[in-house]
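Thioesterase family protein, pasting as requested.
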Amino acid sequence: MNLTPLSSILSGRRQAGPDVTFEIPQDWLQGRTSFGGLVSVFAVQAMRDVAGGSWPATVSLRALQTSFIAPVEQGPVTVTGQVLREGKNVRQVQATVKQRGEVCALMVGVFGSDRETIVPPLEPVQPSVPKDHDELRAFPFIPGTRPNFTAHLDMRWGDGAPPFTGVETWIAALHLRLLDEDTASRPSELMTVLMADASPTPVLSRFRSPVPASSVSWALELRPLPPGEELDGWWRADNKAIAAAGGYVNQQSMLWAPSGALAALAYQVVTVYG
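Structure tokens follow.
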């Protein structure tokens, strides 16, 4: 399977007014639908394209609220951006993702610049990481068994267990890095959005054979990374299911940048068909 770098997809986008069209290749699919992190990256990029041209460089993505409504399949997908409100420090932009005339996802991005404050910085400390990631259990791409998009990632397992191993756990800690990608040319907020959605839900580890799972909603809170932050090293995602009933799972995640800085917190509702 030929791999299409994220940078190629983004550079090949087409804009016409508030509409930005992206082409989704086969290698970024997750089953019959596209990897949700990629769709969210499209939304953030479209928000920037439509509304961010006049914004100062200090304006960063602070939060992203996502509702996944219908599958986004291989082929062209159009994202329509609309500025809802632009204040002195905070700007809110909506993105509607459509394919073949059907609404597939709705997103609202909150962009903000730093404010004067007397509140001292509070920086969470990343859990300990291994000195040699090669010692961790690898989660390699296997055609026909694992989602296509995982071919773009080097994934190593920390705490918890891989999907469908029959381990009764509610947690999953993964170490991740993007392969064959010029990360230096990509904004850190796009990398954060992509990596924050790359981990499978911990609940899948409890099954002994494959079952489908799908995100219904995703709330992402970003901690803007400093300019020049290293992006092509190992990211760490700590995921924890905090409630489950009736086929729905509520989970929370923390994403750490390669430097050890907290990059994002996420809250997700996932459906599990099994």
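Note for the archive: Residues 212 and 273 are 5 Å apart (CA to CA).
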